[in-house]
Amino acid sequence: MKHSLTAGAGYLVIDHRDSPGITPADVAHVPVAGPIVGAGETFEADALTCSHCERGIVLNPARVRERGYCAKCDHYVCDACNAIRVKTGACVPLRQTIDVLQTQATKFLGQPDHPDAHPRVLLTD
Amino acid sequence: MARWAAVVPTWTPTATADHATALVDGSHHTIQGGSSTQRGELREVYLGGQASASSVSIMVLGRTTTVGGTLTALRLAALDPSTAALAAPPVSYQTATTDPTRSVTLGMLLNLSFNAFGGIVRWYAGPDEVISYLGNVTPLAELSLNAFTGGSPGLLGSNIVFETL
Q1: DSSP β-bridge partners for residue A47
Q2: How far is A3 from chain B (nearest CA, A)?
Q3: B94 part of a folded domain
């Protein structure tokens, strides 16, 4: 039984105790935020994954905004998936998608030319 | 099932933009499923900086939109000595005839930016907090560790631990 949303979390460590580290300016252009660990510092935090897309979620203790949460799968979700969840109410965990794709791939094993043999989930880029 | 470690002892990433160019040989560390139905989960990513001068390395781990073709497989080590050999093991690679391309939408599942001059990064997945891959064709077949645009990526060693299901 899971006692809290953070039970069973993994962790992320970035150790710059003996390193010049990075500065906010170094990573300002990166579209996905990550911990910025300066010279001589060590960052350690619980790490979860978004159940809808499996992006890593580092729980920032200083966060004041509401954290994305899906009550249907009872799991934290990332900000991007939370926006979709709020707009559509949909909950499609990636594990569910992978189950479907794996079943599909197994069913059409050896029939690569079958129209249903290839995954129907496409990245948008 | 069994856990495996894919280790690349020393390599230098190349800063690469999303989708604009393929990840060139030797500039990434990628895991691809061993067959069209094989499923696996990432358990750990470790990066140890080996650079001899300050090297801001904007390392990301994520999916690829073009998967590698005709791969040169690197070493895989089972973590448990009693692990049975797989008929179609996943492939850890840095070199391919067709190079992979990082996805714009899901190319950054983890942001592991660090300084490769003395820095260390370890991401460890909780029991139900995994990142999955499936099969050996797009869109979910690969998980790639590579460097995003910017910084000056430096020499590092990487270790990816994953579990085949």
Answers
A1: A10, A58
A2: 14
A3: yes
Give yes or no for a contact between B102 and B68, defined as CB atoms under 8 angstroms apart: no
Taking residue B20's Cβ as centre, other Cβ atoms within 10 Å add up to 10
pTM to 2 decimal places: 0.93
From A47-51, A103-107, B35-39, B89-93, the region with the lowest mean pLDDT: A103-107
Chain B hits for A18, Cβ within 8 Å: 118
Please write the tens of the pLDDT for every residue from A75-124: 999 999 999 999 999 999 999 988 888 888 888 877 777 777 666 555 55
Could you tell me if residue B131 is inside a domain? yes
A105 contact residues in B (CB cutoff 8 A): 36-37, 134-135
The count of structural domains within chain B is: 1
- Put simply, the answer to whether A27 touches B150 (Cβ < 8 Å) is yes
Report the residue of chain A nearest B115, measured CA to CA: A21
Handedness of CA B82, B87, B91, B96 (dihedral sign): positive
Which domain range does residue B112 map to? 8-164
Chain A residues within 8 A of B112 when measuring between CB atoms:
14, 34
